[in-house]
Hints:
Elements: H1 2-26, H2 30-37, H3 42-53, H4 60-84, H5 87-94
Amino acid sequence: xxxxxxxxxxxxxxxxxxxxxxxxxxxxxxxxxxxxxxxxxxxxxxxxxxxxxxxxxxxxxxxxxxxxxxxxxxxxxxxxxxxxxxxxxxxxxxx
Length: 95
């Protein structure tokens, strides 16, 4: 439980925010950005379903592997989001 609450959830939250920053930089309006941003939940929904079915077991070593994968994705998304996010452009495009 501690690995999930202290490691996986914060990393997943950062991944979601970074993904939504990239999506909002590319979207043409607020509604499409919101709809596309909802797709960030799908990998974790798939993880939940596979763990309920019994394909993946959520033991501590597996949770550390999941956290490491999410951390790598976070680093990649951070570099992409810092390059694509232009606040002034988004504000003028969505107004």
